[in-house]
Write a structure and sequence with these properties.
Blueprint lengths: L28 E4 L5 H12 L6 H11 L3 E5 L5 E9 L5 E9 L8 H15 L4 E6 L4 H9 L3 E2 L6 E2 L9 E7 L11
Parallel strand pairs: 4-5
Antiparallel strand pairs: 1-2, 2-3, 3-4, 5-8, 6-8, 7-8
Helix pairs in contact: 1-2
Length: 188
């Protein structure tokens, strides 16, 4: 199975409840990433994205630049089972979701939604007003997750960008205005 960059597959309906998961393992703790997580983040990224994983040096630089918007799911055993990474501009109220992932064995439990909801709350708190992301148009589960969080295709052309990441790597750009209420979140 080949993973697609940089969108991260997530389920669209389940919500994180803090209950024991279907595999009888405790629900992971959502927390900020730490520098000590970098080797584990690299392992996680390679596991989920294989050929499209971020190089280790880039993960390090992204952590250094966007530490406050780099969240992880910690299973309590020293292994990470998911992350979300958002980037912001030094000047201006725009941000991008650069990565969202959950390991295959932890999907369909609402963990991706939990990661996204928390990072969106933090972005709003930090003055970000518009958040964008890219998604492979055929990744229906991810598209539905993002739509459920309020993201909409960016105009023109319904956000479709042929060959966005190279030949045959089409993407849809989606956008969320954070100056409106987030589903399940707090009003602005």
């Amino acid at each position: 199975m080949t993973a697609e960059p940089p969108e991260r597959f997530m389920d669209r309906h389940d919500r994180f409840t803090g209950r024991v998961s279907r595999s009888d393992s405790p629900s992971p703790m959502l927390r900020a990433a730490h520098a000590s997580d970098l080797s584990e983040l690299r392992r996680l990224d390679e596991e989920v994205f294989q050929d499209f994983a971020y190089p280790g040096f880039l993960l390090r630089q992204l952590f250094d630049m966007y530490e406050e918007h780099f969240l992880v799911l910690d299973d309590g055993t020293g292994r990470l089972c998911g992350y979300v990474l958002a980037a912001t501009r030094a000047l201006g109220p725009d941000g991008w979701i650069l990565g969202l992932c959950v390991t295959e064995d932890r999907r369909r439990r609402g963990l991706g939604r939990e990661l996204m909801t928390e990072v969106l709350v933090r972005l709003r708190r930090d003055g970000i007003r518009v958040v964008r992301l890219t998604v492979e148009p055929a990744n229906l589960a991810a598209v539905l997750l993002y739509r459920g969080l309020g993201f909409r295709p960016e105009e023109p052309d319904d956000g479709l960008r042929p060959d966005y990441f190279g030949p045959g790597m089409h993407r849809q750009i989606m956008r969320l205005d954070l100056n409106v209420d987030l589903p399940g979140g707090t009003p602005s």
